[in-house]
Amino acid sequence: MPADPPRGNAVIGQAGGPTAVINQSLVGIVEGLHSGGAVGRILGARHGVRGMVNDDFIDLTDLSEEKLSRVAVTPSAALGSTRDKPNEEYCERIFEKLRARDVRYFFYVGGNDSSDTCRIVNQLSNEAGYELRCFHVPKTIDNDLMENDHTPGFPSAARFVGKAFTGDNLDNASLKGIKVNIVMGRHAGFLAAASALARHREDDGPHLIYLPERNFDTDRFVADVDRVYSRLGRCVIAVSEGIHNAQGESISALMSGLEEKDAHGNVQLSGTGALGDWLANLIRLKLTPEGGKPPRVRADTFGYLQRCYPDASPIDQHEARAAGQKAAEVALLGDLDGSVAIKRMSNEPYESRFELVKLEAVAAKTRVMPDEFIKGDHDVTPAFFDYLRPLVGELPVIERL
Fold it and tell me: Does residue 386 share a domain with residue 249?
């Protein structure tokens, strides 16, 4: 039989890149904890684990339903976020601070590294014989968490990408040229693939989609663009920021000479337009006929615009809230740790459920686009459309003369 929930306080933190729905999960946890009588104060850690070790908390216990409702629909991390990646020594400091405040429930909303933080803190509390129930609540626009059909934040970001490419494709059809758009996604191409939502008729872009799940070859890329441009007189291209060559080297890092790395040891990809500019210059150089006029080529890097645009997917809002509620529910029922995962039940009608999986199954692991979603070297399959369409909500109706 599960142990009775211990009496004590709860701490909630948010980590990693903010999203359009991360606050839904925050509010869902608070709502779920209010339904049980074991929790004393509900504390929000300012800037995630950094706030925990610095004793920087806000009391969420008595916030009104009206205020919580407004917070829930507000994009970005209401508590503030962090890129800190705690090691064991850092986690020991977290645990000691939580124990000093009589915290018995720890909820961390974030990606795979956040789940690893939960795992380490949980392990430390077990070794100390202190009951601390640790739960990871999924969040990432990259959609790269293991055990999940998809992750809160991704459907809303995919909705933004689909709508942005819809407008850009119409612009490109009006004033023809070659357009390169760089989309977030270090190792997983789900978000760049979502650009395909802009296709409403056969000649709509993006005409080419390049994902990190396939090796990127510059000669093949130029030939692909040339073929589309020769046929249509224009070409819209979606490129994941994480594309790499056959040796596994990041094209963005190679072309920009970047040295800066984040706390996770990854080369910074989102703070520069170097990849888009380099690809645009490559196209211009290779496709300019001798003695002729170069093609009209432009590039944009979507960057942080994709994360917190205030037009969230309704499904995303609901599931992010429900994931937080589920974490609180299982904590109060007696589970000691775990990561909440979204499992798809059906597409028509769309249904999902929430399941608690082991932290070790998610922690520090990366999920990528499955092969059945990828068509050749630069496109997506109908199976990907079937997967994505139920998640993003209604998109604009488009008509052309």
Answer: yes
Do 235 and 377 belong together in one domain? Answer: yes
The CATH number for 25's domain is 3.40.50.450
DSSP code, position 250: B
Q: Give the CATH number for residue 256.
A: 3.40.50.460
DSSP assignment string, 175-221: S--EEEEEE--SS--HHHHGGGGG--STTPSP-EEE-TTS---HHHH
Query: What does the alpha-carbon distance between residue 156 and residue 393 come to, in Å, rounded to a whole number?
Result: 9
Preceding peptide of 152 cis, ω within 30°:
no
> Radius of gyration of the chain from Cα atoms?
23
- pLDDT tens-place string over residues 183-229: 998 899 999 999 999 999 999 999 999 999 999 999 999 999 999 99
- Enzyme catalytic residues: 142
* 256 and 324 inside one domain: no
* Rounded CA separation 178/295 (Å): 7
- Domain containing 64 equals 8-141+311-367
Tens-place pLDDT, residues 101-143 = 999 999 999 998 999 999 999 999 999 999 999 999 999 999 9
Number of domains observed in the structure of the chain = 2
Distance CA 342, CA 355 (A): 7
Q: How many CA atoms lie within 13 A of 262 on its CB side?
A: 14
Q: Is the pTM of this model over 0.90?
A: yes
